[in-house]
Write a structure and sequence with these properties.
Structural class: alpha/beta
Strand content: 15-25%
Shape: globular
């Protein structure tokens, strides 16, 4: 029961990571199967200091998992999946049904399928990995860990939209929030760093990557979050617009004759940082900005301003904030973004950035006398999924 396999199934891919929970956060192997169903799928496996990569025909997810099991056996990583204590799956949408990780049975499968219209690009493909494991190894316990679960503590006045109430009752339109696994993980790590009980810690957690979200955490629980009914709402992201006057959609449709599918693609795939400056890689944007590129500068300014705006709102919402936590690819690695976000926070809320610590990417990047601490905590969603899976299996 010590070994937990974490799977993140996409439409034509499976990301995986194998943990030995008896040895803390020990990763036995990790990798990716991509282009499933195409002529030449790619299989990538990393274990120890070794890397394996090959092209192989993989017809579907079940076949991909069989290949994974064979390769693990060949490399003496795992004799078979029967050695596993459990399999943890990232599932994007748990709706109002799930406020924590759950052991998967037929009723859970039905609910994940029922919620597919709320996450049509994710829940159906998340199910592929679950069903493949059940088919091949029905006796191995499986656990679903939902991106939305951590945010189920948000109260009704916060998650409701000011739309006709029947849309909430019948269509379940409300704020759900995402990135919950990451926000929960860094909340726990921040509590360790600050030596506070998780039930007493108040944080603003900022998951910044290609997808971005902010969460207000009060007494260890999510009380508000920037993503909404879908991951499109909130902060400016790599290719997503974030908060937007909805009337813009009507205007573009009438003015340019754009249909729903075209508008969806624009808002989700062609907006955000990419929409402003043509690039969604923050490293490239920072490089261009340093060379005087005006659009890259503007993209950075818009990106950071939106984050600062949410920090202000959440500070008022929470009351007393212990720390602001940066995480995700950008949050963990971009000292420039962190500096731009923190400009002015010393005077407004007493969060004092230490420039030298920030440049060094230290764990605590605030000054010693800062009223609100500023932390940089690398997220580890896979370990969080493994840990929740381990606990659910142990408690069954």
């Amino acid at each position: 029961m010590k070994k937990i396999l974490v799977l993140n199934s996409g439409s034509s891919s499976i990301k995986f990571k194998l943990f030995d929970m008896d040895r803390g956060e020990k990763v036995l192997c990790s990798g990716l199967i991509e282009r499933i169903g195409e002529k030449e799928a790619r299989f990538k496996l990393k274990f120890g200091d070794k890397k394996l990569e090959k092209s192989i025909d993989i017809k579907d997810h079940a076949h991909g998992l069989s290949v994974l099991q064979e390769e693990m056996k060949r490399e003496n990583i795992l004799k078979s999946f029967q050695e596993l204590g459990g399999v943890g799956h990232r599932v994007v949408h748990g709706g109002e049904y799930f406020d924590k990780a759950v052991l998967i049975d037929d009723s859970v499968l039905e609910k994940i399928e029922e919620l597919s219209p709320l996450a049509p690009l994710h829940n159906p493909v998340n199910l592929l990995g679950i069903k493949a494991i059940f088919k091949q190894h029905p006796n191995i316990p499986q656990v679903a860990v939902f991106d939305t679960a951590f945010h189920q503590t948000i109260d009704k006045k916060t998650f409701m939209y000011a739309l006709p109430y029947e849309y909430y009752e019948k269509e379940k339109i409300r704020r759900y929030g995402f990135h919950g696994t990451s926000h929960h993980f860094v909340m726990q790590k921040a509590a360790e760093v600050l030596q506070k009980d998780t039930n007493k810690i108040n944080l603003i957690t900022l998951h910044l990557g290609n997808g971005d979200s902010a969460t207000a955490v009060k007494e260890g629980k999510s009380i508000d979050t920037s993503m909404g009914f879908t991951p499109l709402e909130g902060l400016v992201m790599g290719t997503r617009c974030g908060d937007l006057d909805p009337a813009i959609v009507f205007y573009l449709s009438k003015k340019l004759g754009l249909n729903i599918e075209e508008l969806d693609k624009i808002l989700n795939k062609k907006s955000g940082l990419k929409g402003i400056c043509g690039d969604n890689d923050m490293r490239e944007i920072e490089k261009r900005a340093s060379q005087g590129d005006e659009k890259a500068k503007l993209a950075l300014e818009v990106f950071c301003y939106r984050i600062k705006k949410y920090i202000g709102a959440y500070t008022v919402t929470i009351g007393k904030v212990d720390a602001i936590v940066f995480t995700g690819g950008i949050g963990e690695n971009s000292s420039l973004v962190r500096e731009m976000v923190c400009i002015g926070l010393e005077d407004s809320i007493g969060a004092k950035l230490d420039t030298e610590k920030n440049q060094k990417n230290e764990l605590i990047i605030s000054k010693n006398d800062s009223k609100i601490k500023i932390l940089v905590i690398p997220t580890d969603e896979e370990f969080e999924i493994a840990n929740q899976t381990y606990n659910e299996v142990a408690n069954r």
